[in-house]
Amino acid sequence: MKNGLKKIMMMLVGAAFVLPTQAQLLKVTIKDPALQKNSMLSVKGDFEQMKFDEKGVWTYNNTDKIKEPTEMGMFIGGGHMADVFLEPGKTICMDISLKNGKLQTKFKGDNAAESRFLMEDMSLTPERYAPRTLDPEDLEEMSEKELNEYKERIEREKRDTISFDEAYRRLEQHYAATMKAAKAVKDADRRNQFVHRAEVHYLAAQLDLTETRAHAWKMDLKKDELYKQLLSRIDPNDVFGVDQLYRLPQRLLESKLTTNKRDVDQTAYALDYISNVDKTFTNETIRHRLLSDLGMQVFNSSYSGQVFEMDKFWQAFKKASPKQTLDYFQPIYDSRMATKAGAKCPDASFSDLQGNKHKLSDYFGKYLFIDIWATWCIPCCAEIPYIEKHVAHYKDNPKIQFISISIDHNHNAWVKKLENDKPEWPQFICDKEEYQQISKQWGVTGIPRFIIINPDGTINQSEAFRPSAADFRERIDKIIGK
């Protein structure tokens, strides 16, 4: 009896040591301190800092976040990327090092084959790409050090440039390695998914490289025989290919259009786009994605200075759209129709830095230039210095008032931004309900969004020009009658 009890106790003690290992989803070993620095795991949109012990080991055990097979991304050493495949109840060990400036990854344990595939799939990109360029205005804003670094990078890229024949050859090698890794996965369903993913990715990469070649050789892409051949291999109803990384249905659609996306009046382009979606694609998910892309372009057209005949567009769009597309865009269309120039401005509430409530109508009586923005929105923040200059220019003009309304959910981020920038015009923030109200009233599909209200509380422009527009003051002066 004592021996039996002793065995049970030994088993329990052993289990106590085994359980933490079983709960451990991921073990990462990095010996190089430089690689350890600033390394992070991306966990469903959140970032977790990887903190290594004295042996260069970091473990991840959060089973609350990993409840199903999940592909995870890592930023290593601040400048490298790696992927790993995690699954509840399974443990994978990952050894990371650097060799000749390239990240080396070794996997052991569960899902090692899946993780190797993810790393191979990550490398399935062309090694010849379009040369990077910056606008003259961006170059002018650079410091001397930044400009020299930019020039050095351009020269380095020129030296490292390979021929297009070599780029196609290397891409084919990457594809062969990726397919080999996919076929090494034991689970049949997962293996088939990975094989299909590699095929789609390879086709997209070939299209990328051929587009780069046409750009470099100043060729008409639509007359490129290889490009035509690649397009013919696209399955128009393969949902996997619609991902933004691949854009296969999107490219097939673009190849069929006979109108110009850069025309100021985009009505013909929109109708051409809708017609070809109708003729080419039957899968509702793909139709939804393609038509949603167009809908966002149309309802954000004021930012690019383009115009649409809304009635013509909407009738065609409504007829071609699946229910989920129409359910999303119908309220936006309705709000845009309700906020045309001359309509009564819908009122809205928001709070200042001290938490006091304000209403939009409190500021009627002069022309009101409204900036809807958020701290996480890079284009929004890029407009702030321009607003600041215009505020200073019009500070003694009693006809116009500038206000900014943040839609940040992170109140502290907004406060911190204001403390740093110290803006000299009224700043407000919406809570969740107030944001939903403003979004619905004005059909907000993207920010920054600028609105101009007349002194009598009617709408002047529901989608106004950006503060960064070269002729901003000329247009404002015309509106306020200066």
Explain this structure.
This protein has 482 residues and is α+β, with helices and mostly antiparallel strands. The protein contains 17 helices and 15 strands. A 5-stranded mixed sheet has the order 13-12-11-14-15, with helices on one face. α3 (112-122) runs antiparallel to α6 (164-183), α10 packs antiparallel against α11 and α11 packs parallel to α13. The longest helix has 29 residues, at 188-216. It is globular, with a radius of gyration of 28 Å. 26% of the residues are buried.
Strand content: 15-25%
Number of helices: 17
Helix fraction, binned, reads 40-55%
Q: What is the topology, as strand order, of the major beta sheet?
A: 13-12-11-14-15
Largest sheet: 5 strands, mixed
- The span between the termini is 101 Å
Low-pLDDT sequence parts: 4-22
Q: What is the count of β-strands?
A: 15
Mean pLDDT figure: 89
> How large, in whole angstroms, is the Cα Rg?
28 Å
Shape: globular
Helix-and-strand structural type: alpha+beta
